[in-house]
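Worked example 3 (structure in, sequence out).
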């Protein structure tokens, strides 16, 4: 019987699939190690470039590695330079660590080691500082850059999707490391293995970093000052006085509902919430589950309707019971996997903003992750929008006081969020998107059980158009640069 070989997936993300000559030479050294020294007992699979955003490319690479039963993923950016005297894969694999990286430095500006230590600025803000005074040899760190890294694919089975995402103060690499540590895995770096980062005319080096180390120290000192400003900004928006009414309409789908609520309680500061679920149609499984939750959590309550009325009426019933400054309305087929989501969304509010929404895989308009590339290229992490999709939204309660509740003429719910968005904006409230928060959404799991979605969309879209006019509705789908440019100012820093 043939012995099973170790399968290694070498992935090089590249927006253009074009690699610099120095990087090609570097790749030759890597493959000489892999296909030369490691030829026996190993199978190597190389992919260069998935022409999509880096975030999506990394998630797709993980998916491919799992589907093809890879044992390892060796990440290598297309601007990393491996010296000829380093047997990169052999040296990293010999440690038998779940996640391990060599040492390399930032490419632009002040050179900084891409290894990080977690630091709590205050109760509302955590940052990851570059370790400027690193020790030599193998060491455990809190995060590393993904320009070059070897990891065991099996760890993905213990992590929830998405594996890579962005938050306001984390790139996709640190985000992954945080999730990996939360899942019980250590992050390692061997600072004796040093590779270059291409910054023309030549790759940077450790010698350059050490020569310019005083600049790195000054950079970190200045960054810490800015971190305190941001931390205070979070504290103001997310201080102890901020309280929320959480409303979730539910129609059957016990398992999906339970998963959604579990993810909310796991990743949220529950002291801030008053949670109201609606058991629309008195489902017996939901009834038992909600009763158990009410015994377990003092802030949980639910409303039961004997006959299914649809989410609009259910949400309005719950809205009439709200008492807190903010109301968070969510579908029951969502999943939260980010403990910083509320802080990031709250930091998106300003005096003129009435509604803040995250991005999602299944949402209307610019909230959808399909628009990530558009906004990332413009550098917009927080930006204005014309529509707040009802998948998951935080609304100032004063908005409901001014414009009224959801329009029950929309019945089961399609297009009611677009109608409310128009009403809120006409009343003078802005809608903003926190592009650094991702909420997974299964999509229409309840409505599929009770109606034909195409017919419901057609019926409610006509109602929306009759109410506001074709021009207004068509404008909801347009990308207006003049409208979004206000989002370019991500932070207002006040000393």
């Amino acid at each position: 019987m043939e012995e099973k070989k170790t399968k290694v997936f070498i992935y090089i993300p590249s927006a253009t699939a074009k690699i610099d000559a120095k990087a090609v030479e570097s790749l030759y050294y890597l493959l000489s190690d892999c296909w030369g020294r490691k030829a026996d007992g190993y199978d190597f699979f190389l992919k260069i470039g998935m022409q999509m955003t880096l975030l999506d490319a990394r998630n797709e690479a993980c998916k491919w590695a799992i589907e093809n039963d890879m044992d390892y993923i060796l990440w290598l950016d297309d601007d990393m330079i491996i010296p000829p005297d380093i047997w990169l894969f052999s040296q990293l694999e010999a440690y038998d660590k779940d996640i391990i990286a060599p040492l390399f430095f930032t490419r632009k500006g002040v050179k900084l080691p891409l290894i990080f230590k977690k630091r709590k600025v205050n109760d509302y803000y955590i940052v990851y500082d570059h370790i400027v005074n690193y020790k030599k040899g193998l060491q455990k760190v809190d995060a590393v850059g993904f320009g070059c890294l070897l990891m065991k694919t099996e760890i993905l089975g213990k992590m929830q999707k998405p594996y890579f995402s962005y938050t306001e103060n984390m790139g996709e690499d640190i985000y992954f490391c945080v999730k990996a540590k939360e899942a019980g895995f250590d992050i390692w770096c061997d600072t004796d293995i040093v590779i270059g980062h291409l910054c023309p005319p030549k790759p940077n080096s450790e010698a350059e970093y050490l020569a310019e180390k005083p600049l790195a120290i000054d950079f970190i000192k200045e960054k810490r000052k800015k971190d305190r400003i941001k931390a205070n900004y979070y504290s103001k928006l997310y201080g102890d006085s901020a309280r929320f009414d959480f409303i979730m309409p539910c129609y059957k789908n016990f398992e999906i509902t339970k998963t959604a609520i579990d993810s909310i309680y796991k990743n949220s500061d529950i002291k801030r919430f008053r949670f109201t679920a609606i058991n629309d149609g008195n489902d017996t499984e939901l009834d038992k589950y909600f009763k158990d939750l009410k015994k377990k959590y003092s802030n949980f309550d639910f409303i039961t309707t004997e006959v299914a009325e649809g989410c609009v009426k259910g949400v309005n019933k719950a809205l009439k019971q709200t008492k807190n400054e903010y109301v968070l309305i969510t579908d029951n087929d969502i999943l939260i996997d980010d403990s910083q989501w509320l802080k990031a969304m709250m930091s998106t509010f300003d005096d003129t903003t009435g509604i803040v929404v995250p991005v999602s895989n299944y949402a209307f308009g610019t909230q959808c992750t399909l628009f990530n590339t558009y906004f990332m290229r413009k550098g917009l992490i927080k930006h204005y929008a014309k529509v707040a999709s009802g998948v998951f939204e935080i609304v100032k309660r004063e908005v409901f006081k001014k414009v009224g509740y959801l329009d029950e003429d929309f019945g089961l719910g399609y297009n009611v969020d677009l109608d409310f968005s128009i009403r809120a904006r006409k009343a003078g409230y802005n809608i903003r998107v926190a592009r650094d928060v991702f909420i997974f959404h299964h999509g229409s799991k309840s409505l599929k059980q009770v109606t034909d979605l195409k017919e419901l969309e057609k019926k409610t879209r006509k109602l929306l158009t009759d109410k506001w006019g074709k021009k207004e509705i068509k404008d909801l789908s347009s990308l207006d640069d003049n409208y979004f440019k206000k989002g370019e100012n991500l932070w207002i820093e006040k000393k």
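Notes: Confidence is low (pLDDT under 50) at residues 485-495. The domain at 6-234 is CATH 3.90.550.40 (Spore Coat Polysaccharide Biosynthesis Protein SpsA; Chain A).
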